[in-house]
């Protein structure tokens, strides 16, 4: 049975469940930062079936286009680190040359600035619209 890692649960809010994945947002409005968590016990990308990789890639691509169009990001950071949170998860982070951590990594380099309830509602609504475009 799938259980979201407690650290991810504490640091995020949920947008959707799609293609056997949870799509989350890091609750720090300093940068737009999504997390994709596939419903799997596997911890490494190469261990995932091709179909799971395809589904994640579909979500990742939609989120990437959304970040470029909606936020006009300068760079996308996409990574599967898992050094602290072992559960398979993919970061899709929009970066700006003006963000507080630039050009360093966002991990450990941002002060927390939680989304307001209204900001959460807006990002969820916009992201759901983008995810609806994925062919199931």
From TrEMBL:
Q: What is its EC number?
A: 2.1.1.-
**Record SUPFAM superfamilies:** HIT-like
Please give the Pfam families that the UniProt record associates with this protein: HIT
GO BP annotations listed: methylation
Query: Residue limits of the HIT domain?
Result: 35-102
Top-level enzyme category: transferase
Q: Which InterPro entries match?
A: HIT-like (IPR011146), HIT-like_sf (IPR036265), HIT_Hint (IPR026026)
Named from the GO MF annotations, one term is: methyltransferase activity
> Which top-rank group of organisms is this from?
Bacteria
Q: Which UniProt keywords apply?
A: Methyltransferase, Transferase
PROSITE patterns associated with the record: HIT_2
Protein name per its UniProtKB record:
HIT family protein
Organism from which the protein derives: Pseudofrancisella aestuarii
């Amino acid at each position: 049975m799938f259980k979201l890692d407690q650290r991810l649960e504490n640091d995020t809010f949920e947008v959707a469940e799609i293609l056997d994945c949870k799509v989350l947002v890091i609750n720090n409005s300093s940068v737009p930062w999504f997390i994709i968590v596939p419903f799997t016990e596997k911890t490494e990308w190469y261990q995932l079936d091709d179909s799971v990789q395809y589904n994640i890639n579909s979500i990742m691509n939609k989120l990437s286009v959304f970040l470029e169009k909606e936020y006009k990001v300068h760079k996308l950071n996409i990574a599967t680190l898992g050094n602290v949170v072992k559960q398979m998860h993919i970061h899709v982070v929009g970066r700006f040359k003006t963000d507080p951590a630039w050009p360093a990594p966002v991990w450990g380099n941002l002060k927390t600035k939680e989304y307001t309830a209204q900001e959460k509602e807006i990002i969820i609504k916009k992201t759901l619209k983008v995810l609806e475009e994925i062919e199931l």
